[in-house]
Write a structure and sequence with these properties.
Elements: H1 5-21, H2 32-51, H3 88-94, H4 99-110, H5 115-122, H6 126-144, H7 155-166, H8 170-174, E1 177-186, E2 195-196, H9 198-212, E3 217-223, E4 226-233, E5 236-246, E6 249-256, H10 259-268
Parallel strand pairs: 1-6
Antiparallel strand pairs: 1-2, 3-4, 4-5, 5-6
Helix pairs in contact: 1-2, 4-5, 4-6, 5-6
């Protein structure tokens, strides 16, 4: 719902406090889970309204550090968002939905609640829930940009990408890119336009390797249930790179370079 690890932690505590304070309002103990989800969702929506965040275009969410396997995630089904699907690309795309669309999608496709339960929890009509869910799924599919990808990402491609960066091998890196590749860099300084297409992304990475040179270190870590690359430069964590792949080629590159958020990530992986 937030895309912000610190905010999520704070809102979890706030939600638990509300649950304790309002425990007397729960008429049916058997409905505790749904009631707790409703309280938590309301807390998140209140936070989003206070921040005035409706669409955070091309802002990469905080990576999720969970103890999940790098394989064995379920295949695609009739839902675009699954309980197990914590890929950073999906979570980042989710932030581009309106708060209500996001809430409906989470209730229906993550919590797997019925349309009636979702409507009651969010104070909406059943018809409104159906419309919001349809629009949210359609927007998620469109905004994700990648129609077909490997789930999880191909670890062999990630390793070859890491080797190319370590060696400063621009041509080797570019050889891994798909024709329809796109990328975005989030440095925490506002909205960034995506770089789309092989030619544009190739030029961007040639310039980056020329400007920054070889990193001091490139390490692979498991974040969001998939391998990602952490780049060290000047003795500090410089970037976190998430890739999406398709048939041995890279179709999207998301680079997080927000120093404030990388500081927290660096502390967790020190």
């Amino acid at each position: 719902m937030t895309g912000d690890s610190a905010a999520a932690d704070d809102l979890t505590q706030e939600s638990l406090a509300r649950v304790v304070e309002r425990a007397g309002q729960l008429a049916d103990p058997a409905a505790f889970d749904a009631w707790m989800y409703r309280v938590t969702t309301t807390t998140c929506l209140d936070w989003l309204r206070r921040r005035g965040v409706e669409r955070r275009t091309l802002v990469i969410v905080d990576p999720v550090d969970l103890d999940l396997p790098l394989d064995g995630l379920p295949g695609a089904d009739d839902r675009l968002l699954r309980r197990e699907d914590v890929r950073l690309a999906v979570l980042s795309t989710l932030q581009r939905l309106s708060p209500r669309q996001r809430a409906v999608l989470v209730w229906r496709d993550v919590l797997e609640r019925s349309t009636d339960e979702t409507a009651e929890a969010l104070g909406l009509t059943v018809a409104n829930v159906k419309v919001l869910l349809h629009r949210a799924r359609a927007a998620l599919l469109t905004e994700h940009r990648v129609r077909e990808m490997d789930v999880p990402v191909d670890g062999r491609v990630v390793e070859r990408f890491a080797q190319a960066i370590e060696q400063g091998d621009a041509e080797g890196l570019i050889a891994l890119l798909a024709d329809d590749v796109w990328g975005v860099v989030d440095d925490g300084r506002g909205r960034r336009r995506p770089t789309v297409g092989l030619r544009a992304v190739s030029r961007q990475w040639r310039n980056a390797l020329r400007r920054y040179g070889r990193p001091q270190g490139v390490t692979s870590r498991a974040l969001n249930g998939e391998p990602v690359l952490l780049l060290t430069l000047g003795g500090m964590l410089f970037a976190c790179i998430h890739l999406e792949t398709r048939r041995g080629r890279i179709v999207s590159i998301r680079v997080l370079r927000d120093a404030t958020r990388l500081e927290g990530l660096s502390a967790r992986h020190a």
